């Protein structure tokens, strides 16, 4: 199964998770005041997901 985004309404607003193919949550968003804002957040992650890795572990 491919990764997917889940969008939920919570008491704090709207939040999304990025869920791996094995069902594990690998990222959780901040809370958004609107569904449209959360959907824009998902789109921003999709557009930037192929960003390079900045390894700051020092090794």
Automatic annotation (TrEMBL):
InterPro entries: DUF1508, UPF0339_domain, YegP-like_sf. Pfam families: DUF1508 (PF07411). Residues 13-55 form the DUF1508 domain. This is DUF1508 domain-containing protein. It comes from Planomonospora venezuelensis.
């Amino acid at each position: 199964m491919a990764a997917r985004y889940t969008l939920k309404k919570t008491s704090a607003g709207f939040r999304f998770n990025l869920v791996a193919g094995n069902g594990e949550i690998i990222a959780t968003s901040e809370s958004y005041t609107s569904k449209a804002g959360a959907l824009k957040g998902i789109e921003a992650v999709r557009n930037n997901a192929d960003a390079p890795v900045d390894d700051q572990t020092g090794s």
